[in-house]
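2024-03-11 09:14:02 DEBUG pipeline.ingest accepted 1 chain
2024-03-11 09:14:02 DEBUG pipeline.ingest length=114
2024-03-11 09:14:03 DEBUG pipeline.predict start
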Amino acid sequence: MRNEKKLGRISKVSFGLGGYQEAMLGIHFQFSFEGSGIGTSECYWSPELIKCSDKCQWTEEDRSKAFDEIMRYVAKLLSDAKVMTVDQLQGIPVEVALKDFNSFDSFRILTEVL
């Protein structure tokens, strides 16, 4: 297992539908660094596109909890980046952690350079 950290920027960020089959609501990122990039999302099934049923392995309570966690995550990112809106995150410097041959692991806002 190879772990690596790369310095880069948020090259694209949006809040809305995306993720698996474009049916997940949340925040979606693209990062650029050293001539390449990678993306990730923090999202959960949109209640307008995916209805909860007895066949689901999750409940409406699970969805509500996930949305609460996503909103708290976005609030922390905005605070760390010292911005007020999601679109203002574009261009913010980050450290991206990669694992297993360039698979996304995590990222953090480089608060020390803001």
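2024-03-11 09:14:41 DEBUG pipeline.report The chain has one domain: 3-113.
2024-03-11 09:14:41 DEBUG pipeline.predict end
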